[in-house]
Design brief:
Blueprint: H1 15-20, H2 25-46, E1 95-97, E2 100-102, E3 137-138, E4 145-146, H3 155-158, H4 165-168, E5 174-182, H5 186-195, E6 201-204, H6 211-220, E7 225-231, H7 252-263, E8 271-276, H8 278-281, H9 284-297, E9 300-303, H10 312-318, E10 323-325, E11 328-330, H11 336-353, E12 355-361, H12 364-378, E13 385-386, H13 391-397
Parallel strand pairs: 5-6, 5-12, 5-13, 6-7, 7-8, 8-9, 9-10, 11-12
Antiparallel strand pairs: 1-2, 3-4
Length: 401
């Protein structure tokens, strides 16, 4: 056989020969390092980017608009920034901002949570639904008029501010406040809607400019409202005569026409309140057809207390018309102390009789004093519960119509 290595037959290597060709330790470590480096690079390329850490942003809430105190006519102008109104610092007193009720938790008093009616938000503390309700509207030549709905549902109940059953059934005395002449001064009217508790009932003057917008805003702020109907007073002069005023010298048909024209000026009210009207309220022949019309339409009526011998309550009782009469009437008092004294008188009557109704004419002094006084009432456990005016009728008339 030739010694040419190319022609030699192949034979397996021995283990000693194979051992000579094993990889060295350095080669193995180097290979592992290369694999690790390549793997780390691939992972870094495929892995998602890290999420940034959350950032906490603190936002300062807007402050309630502050109304400076009104200086006396002969007082010099203050040299410094006016102080906040007393109601701004009342303990646990809620304020309203943009239609919402705001409570400063840093001013809440120690102890148990306030009870119902103490100014804390409750389940029913919300804007009232937009009015009118379709089934409570009658179309007329004057515009939309209130009427009874399905199954005799009365507008005075449908448009009233809801009150928790615990408040209606409570043995604590009830106090209702009606602020009258709303709409004559638009700025004051909007302040009353914003700063007074929603339990306060408003009474609008039909001739107010922008009446529809004002009444809608009142319901958004949670206030039920009445419509003031001008009626003939004693000694009516031509200067005091108002358009569509109800007069004792007119035929009942004409007074009803005027009444319907006034009722069509707005929607969503619970009833009417007399405006002046001392003579008209004491004339049964003129007053009776008007009360029957209110009864037919499912409205309530409020006697503002201007006429000492008014027949409104007695005639309303005969025909089962829901009627309230003011226990205290506050009309353009000159001193704040006198306004507060009259409000205190109303509270005493409520504590003595179990309920009382205050009618207060809207003016700057009256609004300032009322706002502070109500804050004190709502913070006093022994004071009457503040309720809307309609709530004084709900227990009396039960679930009737």
């Amino acid at each position: 056989m030739s010694d040419d290595p190319l022609h030699k037959p192949l034979k397996p290597l021995s283990w000693r020969e194979r051992w000579r060709w094993r990889p060295g330790v350095v080669s193995v470590l180097g290979g592992l390092l290369v694999i690790a480096f390549v793997g780390a690079g691939v992972w870094a390329w495929l892995a998602p980017p890290p999420r940034p850490a959350p950032v906490t942003v603190e936002r300062e809430l807007p402050q309630r608009p502050v109304r400076p105190p009104q200086p006396a006519a002969d007082a010099p102008a203050p040299a410094t920034t006016p102080a906040r109104r007393k109601t701004d610092t009342s303990p646990a007193g809620p304020r309203r901002e943009g239609g919402m009720r705001i409570i400063d938790v840093t001013k809440l008093p120690d102890g148990p949570a306030p009870a119902i009616g103490k100014g804390m938000p409750t389940a029913d503390d919300a804007a009232l639904p937009a009015a009118p309700f379709p089934d409570l509207v009658e179309r007329s030549a004057f515009g939309p008029l209130p009427k009874r709905g399905r199954k005799g549902r009365a507008p005075w109940r449908a448009y009233a501010r809801p009150v928790p059953a615990a408040v209606l059934q409570s043995r604590r005395p009830k106090l209702a406040v009606i602020v009258a002449d709303v709409g004559l001064n638009r700025k004051l009217s909007e302040e009353a809607m914003l700063f007074l508790p929603p339990e306060v009932t408003l009474a609008f003057v039909p001739r107010a400019a922008g009446l529809t917008a004002l009444t809608r805003k009142a319901r958004r702020q949670g206030h039920e409202f009445l419509l003031q109907v001008p009626m003939e007073p004693w000694g009516l002069s031509e200067r005091d005569r108002q358009p569509d005023m109800l007069l004792t010298t007119l035929a009942p048909k004409e007074n009803l026409r005027r009444l319907r024209k006034l009722l069509a000026r707005a929607t969503g009210y619970i009833g009417i309140m007399s405006y002046a009207g001392q003579k008209f309220l004491q004339t049964g022949e003129a007053l009776s057809p008007v009360l029957h019309e209110l009864k037919r339409r499912g409205l309530m009526a409020v006697d503002d207390g201007a006429a000492a011998e008014s027949l409104l309550s007695s005639l309303g009782l005969v025909i089962r018309l829901p009627v309230l009469r003011a226990d205290v009437r506050i009309l353009l008092e000159t001193e704040e102390a006198a306004i507060r004294a009259r409000l205190d008188e109303a509270m005493k009557k409520a504590l003595r009789r179990g309920r009382a109704l205050v009618v207060l004419s809207l003016a700057r002094k009256e609004l300032n004093v009322l706002e502070d006084w109500l804050a004190e009432v709502r913070a006093d456990d022994t004071a009457p519960l503040l309720v809307p005016a309609s709530a004084l009728l709900r227990r009396k008339h039960g679930k009737g119509k």
